[in-house]
Design brief:
This is Putative conserved secreted protein. By secondary structure, the chain is of the alpha/beta class. Helices cover about 35% and strands about 15% of the residues. The mean pLDDT is about 85.
Length: about 220
């Protein structure tokens, strides 16, 4: 993937991250450190720099008497970016903050902060030559007992339709067109639900051969 850094066709992935301090999932840190990173700082150093920038922004706002409160904490819909040349499938990771409980999935709307955060990610990707983006189709990385088939269908339909709308809207933003959107599903999804969601992709996006990925 390192050679792809010098092209105008970069790839990115959206990974859900808990709210609070700037942190990456342990599995991502482990994978990023399995080989040498020659082009960018190691992921821990990138995260440390983001934390420093966040503290500086907070302190500057406080010193300037800003009327709006700023926080050093990340909230749902916020995201931060790490860059990589040594991962096999992506150059950029968008760490999207989500506070949804893993064992108690709720209902969300198109105005939910995480959905709006996804829109901002697509906008950022379009402006920085990222033409292929992978997103979690259910805004979850693992299935739980509470994620029933009807709930999963409703959630997928919302994410698919919002993503399609954002991609259409991106034509007015300028920058690179996102011509490949990959949909990531939990690895423990049932075959029945997988088939149902694959059919939904064809209907929503009007494509003949949709591609799903499973998060492991």
């Amino acid at each position: 993937m390192a050679l792809g850094l010098y092209s105008s066709s970069l790839s990115g992935i959206v990974v859900l991250t808990p709210p609070g301090s700037v942190q990456a999932l342990p599995k991502i840190i482990k994978n990023a450190n399995m080989s040498t990173e020659f082009h960018f700082d190691q992921i821990e150093n990138q995260i440390e720099r983001i934390e420093e920038d966040l503290r500086k922004s907070h302190n500057d706002a406080a010193a300037g008497g800003a009327t709006e409160k700023t926080s050093q904490k990340l909230h749902p819909g916020d995201f931060f970016i790490t860059r990589h040349s040594n991962l096999s499938q992506t150059h950029v990771i968008f760490h999207l903050i989500s506070d949804e409980s893993s064992d108690s999935p709720g209902e969300i709307t198109s105005r939910h902060p995480v959905i709006l955060g996804l829109r901002n990610i697509l906008k950022t990707a379009s402006r920085h030559d990222i033409s292929m983006l992978t997103i979690p189709a259910l805004l979850r990385h693992e299935m739980s007992e509470d994620m029933t088939v009807p709930w999963s269908i409703r959630r997928a339909e919302l994410v698919f339709k919002c993503a399609k709308g954002f991609m259409i809207e991106s034509a007015t933003w300028g920058g690179t067109e996102i011509n490949t959107l990959q949909l990531l599903l939990p690895h423990n999804i049932s075959e029945e639900l997988f088939t149902t969601l694959a059919g939904m992709v064809s209907n929503v996006f009007r494509v003949a051969n949709p591609k799903f990925l499973c998060f492991d």
